[in-house]
Write a structure and sequence with these properties.
alpha+beta; eleven-stranded antiparallel beta sheet; 25% strand; homodimer; Beta-galactosidase, Chain A, domain 5; 767 residues; five-stranded antiparallel beta sheet
């Protein structure tokens, strides 16, 4: 029984409370605003299994690493996203009995993630041990309009008694990360204060000295009438709160409004934190819950206007794609170029909340098409800011020059330590270069190249220059000992994708150099000087490009994933006894490695990225060879296959691949959603629809669409921001309509024909 | 200043006490008797850096493993040799001041490992804080004649005062392993008793329930006169002891004799342990220290008679080779077929005291030539007993049949968890098969094959049968994804050595089957039935043997270490800036892997093992290609190269390689002797002399010698036990003398000519 959520176009709905699903729901019903995020933990006490998670973006901890066998170059620390002060807590006692859903009878439980409005609500009837029944209705959100603010409305109605309700709103900084390697607590108390109407708590991380200040206040009303309360202040280690009791008659509704401002030393000096938190809180309290809620609805309306996908005729698909878009929008808003996108967003601790190549390879396209170009640009700037660290990382691994970006990072330093990943999965460097191309190609922002792009490209090209291996006997350059995107191969020679993306990086770097020399000669000279770029270097890059070795099989006319790939047993996945899959749960690592089975797109990833350089036949031959060997055991795999299948006209395969990720978390497909949602792979699902079914590409500054309707839907539509205009593309059963929602005219190529879509008008094209 | 020990033919001598070298000396001056071992820790209190180590062979602990990133098939536990009850302890107080060499001034310190007699002695003058001076002379040994017994003579003489000496002999089971993964203690108390003249302590391991009982008694005398003592019994957690004080006049000698019996539940039922310990102790005490010492000298005289190597004209070399022989003899005596040889013997905890392929590849030849054949046979039986576990291990890794012996083990189960080692370094299976061949070839004990050998061979052949990969396009069998003996390559395809030893195993198994069918038809039928051996299987083995793929380069006419080896940068080690070596301390793992540098013999290991199948030219071409790429960063590497160099007539290279291991620990060459000595590689040094300089081989039941004098020595001689006779081979400057020390005539082939050496006579042959 994986499927326990109700289908709905705009909401995720859970009906009936089941303890064993609670941690999954805690992930799925998470809320965030790019600045902070909160798992769907309960406000009141809860003694059942739970993964507490209150996360402040960019606040992390360098936890001492755990390793079986040390290798030179491994990092000593693994940076992990921190579970921070629990700011949602409201203790509830009914006539002295603590409300705890794990310890009472729960009826009419409903939990709703309202994606349209960006709120989490919950209602239930709790029958306490002594038979007393109360109804609770809770609503909360983290404000998109005021990112430091979280607000909660928590209502209690006694149903069959009158009595005393005791309420304890609090801030608790005495929290722990579940994934702490040595069961250490990461926070120390700095300051606390429980004032007349406001309580404040400042905690700091035991390393790196991040300070987080939370300031809270609360109000209560009964049947809509504000209450004047007698408050008992509470102070404990890393904890502040109030306790107050109210007599409530049967059927009266007691409502608690809790407002919290969370501010961090990432934005304020230590001395300013308390004032900043108080000011943010004051303004929020003055606005009041209603107004804050209204603001929230408005910001989300804007988000949906820019990024919604509508699927007609399939509620489950509609719900799923909106859930994915919702998660992406609440994980990263692009306002802060020091932030990036963790694989679990704000929904869990796993993967340490760190940045992977997922961002460049999968997430960037989503933000390029659904938000102002400055948002995607900030994702690029993030890596630019880490260039120095990437150079240091290359030195650590023995390279004299160039930059190797880390596989997993929070601050630019490598966090991970499996040699086959950390040291060998160097293709990530290519994805970071490719993102620059992708951004500039999409937005036309050529200025980025001189400002930031070239430096990153040149240092990555230098890395490849040093990393290749010249083989005199063959007069060719090779790249030995790598792990490609398909992590079910380790330490292989000449992974085609890696060789290709390395060579491509050097090509593109030379192209950008030519462009800058011509278009921005002064800046060009400055950069050559700053980079100390020598002619021998660019000449060497040209030589490597010319003499790069690409493994290839003449008989099958396909690129080889790596040297020797055809020596493997090539039995396709469909002929494998299903008891063996997923391989990563059933096979030992050596067996996986020597098999031909592919975790995620590898050769095909290259044909996808560099799609305009390969003809359809080449793509088809390689797809036909590799896809049947692919087990898709990375959530990032199906989307690339779906998009390529669309291009190749394999409609059923495209839809099958789309389905594999669309409801990954909602249906807990991988049995691991309790750890958090697969946030970055959600961008892949979005790509399946827009780049796959929609066939979106940008060529020579023109938006190309090549849509087809997968046939299971009445119609679907998506939004595309492109160079100032916003287009809504609706793919019906017979035709495609491109509607320009802005006043800026747009040129669009549909099925190979160019159209100009005037401001606020549309074109319709038959399939 | 690595070299701090005095050169001497029969002893290891340290003069002058230096704190920072103490842990190195604790390793080097270790004593053992195959049943138990003891680092050269001090009897009295010591507050300086020390690695306490009292080890009982076969008593181990399954410590919870520590791993960075889990893989299917990894063992949950790492079995490690246990630091057991400290039985040497004797607390000393002089007028209330504790004797502690880290806290007083030490003069005239001498520590001597008397290898001829198997004893450790120590003498020094300690000047205490208040100026009192005492002379201490301590002597101890673990009895070779009575393996459960340890004995200590500890003498104190006040030099400039008269006063009270307080003595506290004790047994302390409250000890810890330094390498405990989670700082846990592994022992719990079972029983303790402090009687009038005897104290006993039984402790048990918290897992596996090993019980160790230690029983001690002690005597004291002053100036040779036995003392009647007033004893204060002491009992603490896991601790028993006595405290007693004696008034000693200036220049009087107070002598303490401490006797301990250590018995374990490996040999006795829980209920018998105390009685067994008491009985052993009683008998030892009755014999007295003098007699025990005499027995010790006698047993060691026998050992030396059988295994000594004499080098004339080079004291350092003489000392080194005796040290190696001494360590081997005190580590493994071959009396107990449940025991094996840990890489550090009884000298430290590192590598968990577990069994590696070192035993079969390096140690077996030493025991074959220097002891009764039953000793080497017991090393084989050890693996026979683990056959069931090896089959289970293969199942765990997904194999339907066959056996994969563990890489690292204590009880037959795999202990290690690096996938590239544990799962992929499968050539170990070949070494275990090869050891059977080696043993039978040397001893002529064909009966072993039917009794035990075939079962192991057949199950290993079955493993290879399933592990190979048929490549239809090439009509060949390959072995993909392995790590060869050269661990500086991981997950390679078609490691020549692995393919070769796999194929060889199947060849030998078929040969043994033929032999048994003909010579022992009844047993043959029994075994075919027991093994359920099918004709398809042996046919399949034949096919694999015929169609096995061996990577080879036609141009250079050499075997390739693995597919693609020649694509690497082939710069020889001599052209590498020395700042890079040792690579394992300076290079990240990926850099090591993609380099051509070789940790230890790989192709050459195969040419060494299967030396009679390859001609000298082939060996020469491969040696000339691979040796210059070899960094010898395993202590097991130089010996194989030394032996091959001898065969190829590369005298200087042979001697250079010999020197790299001969004094490895005595000169702390690898800067790690404090962790323990490299016990198994000592067998390699022995091989360098006997198989290398001596040119010893056994062909068709005949002992072949092909000696040469490396030129740095006047002469050298070694002992060889061969089929009942013991030969002493002396290699002088001009001639070789083979002396038969037994009455059984022996046939010997020297420089290609066969001689019969009569009982107690000799032959002399010119070079």
């Amino acid at each position: 029984m994986k499927k326990y959520l109700k289908e709905d176009k705009w909401s995720i709905i859970e009906e009936g409370f089941q303890l064993h699903q609670h941690e999954i729901s805690e992930s799925i019903f998470s809320i965030g605003n790019g600045y902070m995020g909160q798992r769907a933990n309960f406000e009141e006490a809860y003694s059942g299994p739970t993964l507490q998670g209150s996360y402040m973006a960019g606040v992390y901890y360098p936890d001492k690493t755990r390793v079986g066998w040390w290798k030179n170059g491994y990092p000593e620390y693994f940076a992990k996203v921190l579970n921070s002060t629990n700011w949602i807590g409201i203790g509830i006692e009914i006539e002295g009995e603590i409300l705890d859903l794990a310890a009472c009878t729960v009826r009419e439980f409903t939990r709703v993630l309202n994606m349209k409005e960006g709120t989490l609500s919950r209602s239930f009837i709790a029958e306490l041990e002594d038979g007393k029944e109360i109804r609770v209705e809770a609503l909360r959100f983290v404000s998109m309009a005021r990112h430091e603010i979280g607000a909660i409305r928590y209502a209690i109605t006694p149903l069959n008694f009158s009595g005393k309700v005791t309420v304890t709103p609090y801030l608790d900084g005495d929290v722990q990360n579940k994934d702490s390697n040595y069961d250490e607590k990461f926070w120390a108390e700095v300051y606390k204060e429980v004032g007349e109407s406001e309580a404040a708590l400042t905690v700091k991380t035991k390393k790196l000295d991040f300070h987080v200040t939370s300031v809270m206040s609360f109000e209560m009303s009964k049947n809509g009438e504000p209450l004047v309360l007698e408050l008992e202040p509470i102070e404990k280690d890393k904890y502040v709160g109030y306790r107050t009791s109210v007599d409530v008659q049967q059927d009266e509704q007691l409502v608690i409004y809790k407002y919290v401002a969370n501010v961090t030393s990432r934005d304020y000096g230590f001395g300013q934190l308390l004032d900043a938190g108080r000011a943010a809180l004051k303004s929020a309290v003055e606005a009041g819950f209603q107004e804050l809620h209204k603001e929230q609805v408005n910001v989300w309306a804007d988000k949906w206007r820019e990024s919604d996908i509508v699927i007609e005729g399939d509620v489950a698909a509609q719900q799923a794609i909106r859930f994915n878009i919702f998660q992406l929008n609440q994980t990263y808003t692009g306002e802060d170029d020091r932030l990036n996108i963790g694989p679990k967003g704000f929904t869990g601790e796993k993967y340490g909340g760190s940045t992977y190549w997922d961002t460049e390879a999968y997430c960037l396209p989503f933000y390029l098409s659904t938000a102002d170009s400055s948002i995607a640009r900030n994702l690029l700037i993030y890596r630019y800011k880490h260039l120095q660290k990437a150079k240091e990382n290359a030195r650590k691994l023995g390279f004299v020059k160039g930059a190797l970006y880390p596989m997993v990072t929070m601050n630019g330093e490598e966090c991970h330590n499996e040699w086959e990943i950390t040291f060998e999965e160097i293709h990530r460097n290519g994805a970071i270069a490719y993102a620059i191309y992708n951004y500039v190609n999409y937005t036309g922002d050529q200025a980025y190249l001189g400002q930031y792009g070239l430096e990153v490209l040149a240092e990555i090209s230098r890395f490849w220059e040093e990393r290749v291996n010249y083989v005199p006997a063959k007069d060719q350059y090779m790249i030995l000992g790598v792990t490609g995107p398909n992590e079910y191969e380790n330490n292989v020679n000449n992974n085609w994708y890696t060789n290709r993306i390395a060579s491509w990086t050097m090509e593109y770097t030379l192209e950008v150099l030519q462009y800058l020399k011509k278009s921005e000669p002064t800046r060009y000279e400055e950069l050559v000087e700053k980079l100390q770029l020598k002619e021998e270097e660019t000449e060497k890059w040209s030589e490597i490009i010319t003499k790069m070795y690409y493994p290839y099989d003449g008989e099958k006319d396909i690129y080889l994933q790596q040297d020797g790939f055809l020596d493997k047993d090539l039995t396709p996945v469909r002929d494998l006894d299903p008891k063996h899959t997923p391989l990563n749960q059933n096979w030992s690592w050596d067996r996986i490695l020597r098999s031909a089975y592919i975790k995620q797109a590898d050769v095909l990833q290259g044909l996808f990225f560099l799609g305009d350089r390969y003809d359809l036949d080449t793509k088809k031959r390689n797809f036909d060879f590799y896809e049947p060997l692919t087990v898709h055991e990375s959530s990032l795999s199906p989307c690339v296959h779906s998009i390529m299948a669309c291009e190749l006209g394999y409609k059923e395969k495209a839809y099958e691949m789309y389905l594999r990720t669309a409801r990954l978390d909602l249906d807990n497909y991988n049995n691991d959603t309790e750890d958090g949602c697969h946030s970055t792979s959600m961008a892949g699902t979005w790509m399946s629809v827009v780049h796959g079914f929609g066939g979106l590409r940008v060529k020579d500054g023109e938006l190309h669409l090549n849509p087809f309707n997968p046939g299971h839907w009445k119609s679907f539509s998506f939004k595309v921001m492109f160079r100032g205009s916003r287009l809504k593309v609706t793919v019906g059963e017979q035709d495609v309509t491109v509607t320009n929602e802005t006043k800026i005219p747009a040129k669009v190529n549909v099925y190979g024909n160019s159209y100009t879509v005037g401001g606020l008008s549309h074109v319709k094209v038959n399939h």
